[in-house]
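User: Sequence in, structure out. Go.
Assistant: Echoing your sequence, followed by the C-alpha cells.
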Amino acid sequence: MVNFADVLIDESKKKNSVLVVGLDPDVKFLPDCLLKNVDYSSNESISDAIYEFNKIIINAVADHVVAVKPQLAYYEVYGSYGIKALEKTISYARSKELIIINDAKRGDIGSTSAAYARAFLGDGAISGDMVTVNPFLGSDGYMPFIEAAQENNKGVFLLLKTSNPSSYEIQDLKLENGELLYFKLAEEIEKLACKTIGVNNYSFIGAVVGATYPEEAKRIRETLPHSIFLVPGFGAQGGKAEDLSVFFDVSGNGAVVSSSRGIIYSYMNETDDWNKTTENEMQGYINEAAIKAKEQLNEVRFSSNR
C-alpha cells in the first residue's frame, strides 16, 4: 500500500499548495442568505444551513487546497443532525477529490481509542483520511490510531506543540532531565515515524505544531525529520507566513498549513454589511482568500533565501 504521507505530498505537488482550510461553521457568522429559512429551535434546520455553508467553501477552495479540516465540535453541538451535516460535508468534499482531516483531537484508554480509531479511520460515514489525536494519555491512547491508519492506508497527526496561548502550561513542563515534555513526546513519535516512511522520506504519523511557535518548530523539525507537520494558527490566530519557513524541508515539503476563520469568513472583512452578502459573493471572497493564502505560503516555502 502507498504510505499516506506520499498521498498527501503528491496532492500538494499536483495543486502546488500546502494550504488546508478548516470547516468551522459558526451560525452567528453566517449571512442572511443562508439563514433566511432557518428555525433556530431546530437542530435539523441549523445543520442544513451549515451544510450549505460548507458546500460554498468547498466549491470556492477545491482547486487551491490540499485538504479540508472539519472541526468536530461545530457539528457535535447540534447532536445527530450536526453529525449528519458532517457526514454530508465529508461526502461532498470527497466528490471534489479533497483529502479530509477530521480535527477530532481524540484520545482515551486503549479499547476506547480503538473504537475512536474505527470511527475516524475506518470506512464509516464520518471517517476521513487523517485525524488529529491527543497523545497525552500515553501510548495505549495513540497506538490504536496509528495501527488503524497503517491498516487502512490513512494518517494521523499527534498533538505536540499546539497553537493556543496556554499550551505551555502542560506541554512545556520540564522533566527531571531538564527536557521539556513535548520534546520527550517528539522523540517517542520519531521512534515510530522513522520505521514507517514512504518514498518521500515521510511517515503517515504526523504532528501538530502551531504556526505561533516558529522558534520551537525549528528544534522540533530537527527531532522529527520524518513527520509531516499540521500547522494550525496561520492567519486569524496570529501565525505569519514569513515565519513558517522552518516548518518545511529544502524541497518545500514536510508541512501542511491550516487556516479557518481568515478564509471561510473572509467576506466579513469585505463589506460593512456582511450579513447581506450573497452566496456568489461569499464564494468569490473565500476563493480570493484561499488563493492569497496559498501564494503566501508558496512564496515562503520556495524562497531562495531559505
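User: And one key feature?
Assistant: The CA atoms of residues 12 and 66 lie 6 Å apart.
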